[in-house]
Amino acid sequence: MQRSRKTFFVSAGVAVAAISVVLASYGIFRHSATAHASPVPDIFAALPAGAPTLAYVDLGAIRASSFYQHRPDKGPIALPSQDYADFVRSTGFDFEKDLERVVIASWPPDSPNAPRKSVAIAEGHFDRAKIRDYATRKGKVDHQQGHEVFLFPAGDSKTMNSITFLDDRRIALVAGSSIAPLLASHMDAAGGDPVRDRAAHLDGAAAFLITHVPPIPDNAAGAGPQAAGAAQFLTLARSVQWVTFAARPEGDNLRVSLEGECDNATDAVQVKTALELMRMFGRAGLDSAKNKQSMDPAVLAMLQTLLTGAEVTQAAERVRILVEVTPDVWHLGGPAKAQQ
Question: What is the pTM for the complete model shown?
Answer without folding.
Answer: 0.78
